[in-house]
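INFO  loader      accepted 1 record
INFO  loader      residues=262
INFO  predictor   begin
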Amino acid sequence: MRVIRALSAALLTLGVAAGPAAADASPSPSQDGSSVPTQAGTSFRTATEIEQGQQATASGSTGDYLYWSFPADTGQRPTVRATVKLPETHAAQTWQIDVYDGLRRRQACQYGAQTRTAAADASSVELACVLRTVRAWSEPWANDPLPGTYYIRVTPVGVATADLGLPVGTEVRANSEDVGGSAAVDGSLAEPLVPGIASKPEEEQDAAVLAGLEPEDGWTSGWWSDRWVWTAVGGILAALAGVGGYALTRGTGRPSRVPPGA
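INFO  predictor   done
INFO  writer      dumping tokens
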């Protein structure tokens, strides 16, 4: 019974310790209103960096390609939303939001209104794209989302010639849901897919890279997932079951009326 009590105490301690660790794994979005970006880039190289949970705004002209970038780490399922405020007078317009990973591969949306057409009297159009869960590792031929920088592009895909050049306003926001160990895989990337990371000299640790943002707690690269917790819990439960089964089946020992040599 002392063994059972010891294993039970270990199980309880593991569960208490794992709770805060799992809670701390999700990123805390920045709420600093003073650093909200108010412009967008016009290409991948000039994309404006934003934190997850941070709303960015930008003014532009109908027909422009507007770019932002944000970091996404292993186990996160990013959701990107954009609102385009249209001119007072315009014809019907079709707008689209696209998301690209660190290799500039266009990522498919699981769901969300990625493309929408605004009627001639509409004042705005809202777009959304929910990506697949970011994986720690993938086959070279696969198009799975991997940890690193993600690019948002908002642009019209169907606009009357008379509307080209009219002023528009754009609001963009990226958030993530922490999926956890259900999406964990074996293996990890040597480095996140961040522009410039491969060309950074090892001896110059302070050398700048093209993308300056990363998750609040750093890049995990797949080393931690709650699968470790459930694996440990399963092992402890199996040990408890073995000890309990032995205690139930061993009996009370040799009866006192049976001689030792019998």
